[in-house]
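Margin note from the TA: students keep mixing up input and output lines. Inputs are the sequences; the output is the structure of the whole complex. Example:
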Amino acid sequence: MITGTGITKTFKQRGSVLGAREVRALREVDFAIEPGGAVSFIGESGCGKTTLGRIIAGLETYDSGEIVIDGVPMSGLGHRRRQPHFRRIQLIHQDPYSALNPTRTIHQTLEAPLALRAKQTGRSRSWVDARAEELLGLVGIDPGYVLPRYPHQLSGGMRQRVVIARALTMDPEVLVADEAVSMIDVSLRLGILGLLKDLRVRLGVGVLFITHDIATARYLGDDSELYVLYRGQVVEHGPTETVITRPVHPYTQSLLSATPVLHGLEKPGAERVVPTEALDPSRTDEGCLFAPRCQFATQLCTEQRPRLSHDGTTLQEHACFHPRTRSVIPTGTGTETEMGADTLADTGADMGARG
Amino acid sequence: MSIMTNAQETTDPRSAPGGTPGVTRATLRRNFWRGVWRVLRRKPSRMVGVVIVAGFAVMGVAGPLLYPDHLPRDDDALYAPPSLRHPFGTDFEGTDVLALVITGARYVLLTGLATAVITVALGTLIGLFAGFRRGRWDTVLMRVTDVNLAIPGLPLLLVLSTVWKFESPLEMGLVLGLLGWGGIARAVRSQTLSLRERGFIEAARGLGLPTTHIIGRELLPSMAPYIAMNMLIAVTGAVYAQVGLFFLGVLPFESNNWGVMLNLAVFNGGALTTAAALPYLMAPLLAILLLTLGIVLIVDAMDEIFNPRLREE
Amino acid sequence: MTANPTAPAVRVRGLTVVYKTPVGELPAVSNVDLTLAPGTITGVVGESGSGKSTLALCLLNAVQSPGRIAAGSVEIDGLGDVVELGGEELRRARGRHVGYVFQAAQNSLNPLKTIGKQLLDLGRSHGVEDLRALVRDAKDLLARMGMDGARVLDSYQHELSGGMRQRVGIMLALVLNAKVVVLDEPTTALDMITQATILRIVREVHDERGLTTLVITHDVGAVAEVADNLAVMYGGRVVEHGPVMEVLGSPRHPYTRGLIRAIPRLSGDISLARALPGRPPTLGTLPAAGCVFRERCDRRMDVCDTVEPVPLTRDGRTVACHAVDAAADVDANAAPGVAAGAADRTPTTARRKEYA
């Protein structure tokens, strides 16, 4: 179990004559990942999601707050004492092309961490090779084919599987997958997402999924949770399916509305909020952070900052003074049956009524 | 639950025939040299380069063994023109010029090699350390590098030569090496700085792999083509520097080498004004030209040799 | 269809592009026929190695060595066969007739020059006499896309966000009044909201200026939002081509079906979604004979191993698949008339309403 409370991070940018400009990457973010659980963080670039992933993987420090890994709080420990704990959380990079050393074969790539692991756990050298094959089998690739090869000889999907296998060498408790499918061919994305879901079930590995594409978060399992980050603040949090089908925060609704509609296969949601892009966001820190871009903002929103909380009417938590469910996501047109599908789950049909 | 998984990429249509899982280091090494051979064969110019450099290496190792310690003189044939017996003529004492070039190669090549090894070792080490550690270490080491780059080599050597005879080529190489590592250190540092942000280095740190592994196994191989190229170029640089010093007469010459030949040809033989000593002048120049050419032709292959993608294709 | 009379048509016929490799010349694009109707947006969707970017480069006759156009023609109204053009003529055609927006415009801008300077360079290289008017046009275009033109022209590439760079790329492609525009991966590496904005801009500018547009992408969603017609490429072939609503609503080629089923979506039953088995082909793994998709196909037949399916057009939709042909023949015999008449929807106008 890994929990974070009040994680705050501010980057200081040098350059200005008047001194450092501060960028608040994370503002008091709380989260929890159960063993074998799945948690997704979504938001635009610059919302702090990547920073959060790096903090959880121990690759970045945080200014205040507390991360507790299996009951051990990290802030009391020095750098060296922390490392073994953070090693239980492995980061999977977005880019499977730069995540593998081009000059080393897959065998060499897996051997090094496994040899270290063997030393830590008092296992023999012969275990290393056996384990390498086992892990590659687990991620769904043929060890005989992959092991002697260099990364450039593998497809993007295969590379990403190798990267996941390498992360598994440390017997991690959580995999942090930062945009893990955005550079994978479309036809293979579900394979990687399915693998992550599968690893949750088979190994009890938790998954922290970071993405800008909300739709991919659906494929991690029915029990997954979703956090929506805006400028470092969690603005909506709840079960993934609930947040997607019945979003209450206007920002979540913007993200969902911006997801392309497969015309012909889907119809756009009735209340699709035409999203506005923040070309020159006024970086005021007054009131609700989303208010300048929000078409539903009122005087109150510019004066006070809403806090993330349950209001009792919805399953999810939100940080909005005017929460309202809107049907923004597309609905299927039923043509899927022609593609060999028996039934079509009409996920968004009842949303309008609830709003 | 695993409906979507493992359905794909488990089998590959053109599945590997060979490649048993536990690939040993030996097979990797064999594959590497096979790849090197392939890269060299790709362009005839590279083979020419290899032949030239190999020829000079043989000359350096075996050359002096082919001739007696004191080369025979032919008093009747001073500054003899090229002939079958003396392909490059003879010098002022009637010694065969070709024999002088061949026996003189060792000093030149050893100096070049020693310089290259020292430059590259020091430069790489300092550059890697500064780039990997960053912070205070980086600042200090880079200031040291700046100082090194600012040392005026020629005046220093002039001063040194008043107290040091440089009898051994290794001494010469040591001095040239200590003077020349700055450039490589800077270049390696900037390479390290950019590489350490790459995903695979970060992954290695995340996995808790020791720093020695990260530097030795992950960083260095990626920089290998770069380092190898610098090393080869350092050899040519050192050859020029040292031949130049002897030619200028800055260094007292005890032994025979190409720079000494040039010096004697020009200042004693008057090769610039009379034709008689011209072959004596041309022979060492030709040797230097050939050596440089051979090295440049090989440098062209370095990128492909150390990059698995370019090597295998 | 709101075809603009001034927009040119583009006809690609029998186009084959080969790349030189150690094992000989291999086709990245193989005998492709594709017609871009005047005034429409055509989306070309394909995975890595499908040849979609190579196809796009052919519209500029800009295939780089070791590749070359081995056969075929690319006819553009008012310009002629681009494949036949060369030298100065070709250089003039690029920009003047065909505007090209590079992949996410990340690396196509010079980091050392302001946008304005690059605009002037572009103008001078095309012999534009009135540079003032050029700058004015550029500012208008930028303002049209929601940006402060003067400020953007004074900026360097690094001072702009991804979405802004993409707009600058579109501006540079359009400022010389090109009527054919090619966008290569216009939304890759952009956020969802930025992507939606860019797609809307592409659609609006397309309509306002009366363009014929080709959008190259791996993202079916992006195409679905913006295109009138959709061409699906696989292994250097166009395997399916037709109106976007119909291709997505009732895909015929097994690859199109598989691809659509593999898209992570917000609607639909996730348990029905699955990845396509196997992996996209590369130049080296493309089979020499037969159907290029058969290794991953769930409707593979014996004939697929030996005979390459020919693209056949039925009721406005082109499909290259033996299984589809066989099924269509059966349908035609059993119930004539069922296959036709499914399409009287007008995707363009339907789309416009949603943005309004």
